[in-house]
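Pipeline run #58 for the internal structure catalog. This entry was flagged by the ingest filter as a single-chain record with no existing model, so it goes straight to prediction. Upstream metadata was stripped on purpose; only the residue string is passed forward. Reviewer on rotation: M.T. Logging verbosity set to normal.
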Amino acid sequence: MTSQLFQLAHRMGFDFDLLAKRGLVPKKTNLQMQAKCQSCLGREMCQRMLDANKDHLDAPPTYCPNNQILSFLKRALPQKK
C-alpha cells in the first residue's frame, strides 16, 4: 500500500517518491515527513479524505503534520499541465 504521504502529494500534483529518489527532498527530511505521517493521529480522517478525493487536492488538510512542507513543494514545483 502506498503511504498516505505519497498519495497526498500525488493528489496535489507531484510525485514525492520521485523527488526523494532524485535527492530533491533531502533523505533526512523525507524520513522525518514519513515518520510524522505514520504517527499522525488524523490518519483515519486523512484516508477518508484521500478516498473522497481520488483525482486532485489543492492543499493538504490543515491537521496534516507535513502541511507546511507539502504546501511549499506545491508552490515551488512546476505544475503539470
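catalog note: Helices lie at 4-12, 16-21, 27-38, 43-52, 67-76.
catalog note: The chain has a mean pLDDT of 91.
status: ready for reviewer M.T.
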